[in-house]
Design a protein that fits this description.
The longest helix is centred in the first third of the chain and has 13 residues. The strands form three sheets. This protein has a six-stranded antiparallel beta sheet. Strands 1-2 form a two-stranded antiparallel sheet. Strands 3-10 form a two-stranded parallel ribbon. It starts with 12 loop residues before the first helix and ends in a 7-residue tail after the last strand. 27% of the residues lie in helices and 32% in strands. It is α+β, with helices and mostly antiparallel strands. A hairpin with a 2-residue loop joins strand 5 and strand 6. Helix 1 crosses helix 4 and helix 3 crosses helix 4.
């Protein structure tokens, strides 16, 4: 890539440098983890001062596009999965909207007696077995979330469904059930051995735990979902509006 600053342009040098960096970090070698040229070398190539270059780099660090580590260098940050509290979507839909192809690293289907809290949520006898769906998901070569879902028996799931398909697409097209409302609880927790092994992180590492309670259009519970996310891979955005 030809890195060149136009010193005769009315556009400030740091903004030109920022624009060049935005194009540079799209190159495959940097997306794959190669370190960017060091500040001294890059500033020399652009014929600008290091302080001017730092303004551009700092902007991209602030936007979570770059990671700068002392004594190591600067590299492209792994893209974070972002979720908003307003107008919730399924995981597959959220990833699709960001142009990220979802990969299932593991998929397990079983039947078992759930915890008391789950039985109470569904308002069913505690000894009633439920379908349990477990999936390790993420993007290519990067598993970053482990999902555990339980479903109300009224849905009629057998366990033979193709769960590689988007979950809510299955419910809507095959069972005529529309997931309409999601209520969520978020907690920062330490990864236990099971989750640490799945997410390929250290035991005790911080993760985001998300409980999702999903209801149909009649307000009836249909899914109890637990999600465990690698902390560095997830951002949760809350949007609020004042009432006057």
């Amino acid at each position: 890539m030809n890195l060149k600053i136009d010193h005769k342009s009315p556009i400030p040098l740091h903004l030109q440098a920022e624009a060049l960096l935005r194009e540079l970090i799209k190159l495959p070698e940097y997306i794959d983890g190669k370190l960017l040229p060091n500040e001294i070398e890059l500033a020399k190539r652009l014929a600008i001062s290091r302080s001017t270059l730092r303004l551009a780099i700092n902007k991209l660090v602030y936007e979570d596009l770059l990671i700068r580590k002392k004594g190591i260098g600067t590299k492209v940050a792994n893209a974070k999965f972002s979720s908003k509290s307003k107008n919730w979507l399924s995981f597959s839909q959220e990833m699709k909207n960001r142009g990220i192809e979802v990969k299932n690293f593991e998929l397990h289907v079983s039947w078992g007696i759930p915890d008391k809290a789950i039985s109470q949520f569904f308002d069913i006898p505690q000894d009633l077995k439920l379908l349990k769906l477990e999936r390790l998901r993420g993007k290519k070569d990067d598993p970053f979330v482990y999902f555990i879902s339980y479903f109300h028996p009224r849905i009629g799931l057998t366990g033979d469904e193709d769960f590689k398909r988007p979950l809510y697409e299955i419910l809507e097209s095959d069972f005529h059930i529309v997931a309409d409302l999601s209520q969520e609880e978020l907690d920062a927790v330490a990864a236990n051995k099971f989750i640490a092994d799945k997410l390929e992180i250290a035991i005790g590492a911080p993760i985001l735990s998300r409980k999702r309670f999903v209801f149909d259009q009649s307000g009836r519970p249909i899914e109890y979902n637990l999600g465990y996310y690698r902390a560095e891979s997830f951002t949760y955005t809350v949007e609020s509006r004042r009432d006057y």
